[in-house]
Amino acid sequence: MHELGRLEDLPQDYRDELTKLNLVPLWPSLRAVLPPKVPTRKTKPTYWAYKSLRPLLMRAGELTPMEKAERRVLVMANPGHGLEKMQASAAIYLGMQLLLPGEWAPSHRHTPNAVRMIVEGEGAWTTVDGEKCPMSRGDLILTPTGLWHEHGHDGDKPVVWLDVLDLPIVYYTETSYVIGGDRQKTKPSRGDRSWTRAGVVPTPVFKRNTKTNPVLRYPWADARAALQSMAADDPALEAVQVTYINPETGGDAQNILGFYALMLRPGQSLRLPARSPAQVFHLIEGGSDGVEVEVEDTRFTLSEADTCCAPGYTAVTLKNRSAAAPAFVFIADESPLHRKLGVYEVRD
Ligand code: GTQ
Predict the structure, then answer these.
(1) More confident residue, 1 or 274
(2) How far apart (Å, rounded) are the C-alpha atoms in residues 123 and 311?
(3) Pocket of ligand 1 contains residue 113 by CB under 6 Å
(4) Residue 177 C-alpha to ligand 1 middle, in angstroms?
């Protein structure tokens, strides 16, 4: 490719005239916006250790009451984007949220989609669109765009969960906003009770609802059991992985981000090919030695409750360092967004 003309090559009076008229010459910036073959990615492989983060989150519990926080969250920000941007990747926001016994995070609804992956504690619940969803370690709870949600806690120890939102991309498209509301009335029904027996799903006689996901909570016990059955039934199966889907349509659980649970057999090493979406890895359960994540020249060892991210167009190798126990990894990525945009790619 040719080297292109620089801004400095242009006379100052010409540049000034362009600026005055809100005009910009393309050629000095063409290679920056259309780099050859591999996109420029600000997303750096980044790792957040739960052991380091947890005491700071507990201190936030002492320093900032709920009335002053609304959501008591430490955002896990990627330094490649600048911490103030509060993004893990181009489309993914990550935060660790703390709720103390008796606390309540008031009801609101917003345009970004959120999910919660429960990390620690029992007795908390999230009410989403009137469905009171209990929170236990490893459960995935959805709060899709526009639905009312509030968090409460009837237990006696702190509860912590990982928030995964598509806030950065929704903010970038200038469509991010919130509406505050009153405490929700809860319904007696719950999608996760009637929809989680694969193969047998509720069938409305008159009308299929293919717009919104009828499942707002995916219990970890079910996902874990599915993974263990898959591993036992097919010892040759390399990637023992499930995708969190909308059981009505078979499509992605949410519009923008994709969610998966992966089981690594004892000692297993698994190479995930380079694909366009950025990814997040969170260790739900692992042996005492953890899971090693290799992203190009960077290597992290995830202990339980640790989280890391990897940029797109990059192969990632995961290794279960325990020879005795399986490891279970929660993965979030940008696949649904990339597929909708038509830019989804697998490179190798
Ligand atoms: O729990 O509703 O981490 O609205 C960021 C924004 C959590 C929430 C976040 C939110 C929430």
Answers:
(1) 274
(2) 35
(3) no
(4) 12
Strand ranges across the sheet with 149-153: 131-134, 124-128, 149-153, 104-110, 178-180
| Phi (first) and psi of residue 254, to 5 degrees | -130, 170
Q: Which two tokens stand for residue 223?
A: 């996902």
Q: Note the pLDDT tens digit of each residue in 160-210.
A: 999 999 999 999 999 999 999 999 999 988 888 888 777 778 877 677 776
pLDDT score, position 85: 98
User: pTM score, two decimals?
Assistant: 0.96
Which of 53, 72, 97 for a ligand 1 pocket mutation test, highest count of atoms within 8 Å of Cβ? 97
What is the structure's pLDDT at 67? Answer: 95
282/284 Cα distance (integer angstroms): 6
The finding on whether 71 has its CB within 6 A of some atom of ligand 1 is yes
Say whether domain 46-341 belongs to CATH 2.60.120.10: yes
Indicate which atom in ligand 1 lies nearest the CA of residue 93.
Answer: 3
Distance of CA 74 from the midpoint of ligand 1 (Å): 11
Taking residues 288-294, report their average pLDDT: 95
Give me the residue spans of the domains in the chain: 46-341
Give the mean pLDDT of 27-49. 97
Other Cβ atoms closer than 10 A to 249:
13
Average confidence (pLDDT) over 129-140 = 97
Rounded to the nearest 5 degrees, what angle is found at the Cα of 132, between the Cα atoms of 61 and 249? Answer: 120
Say yes or no: CB of residue 129 within 6 Å of ligand 1.
no
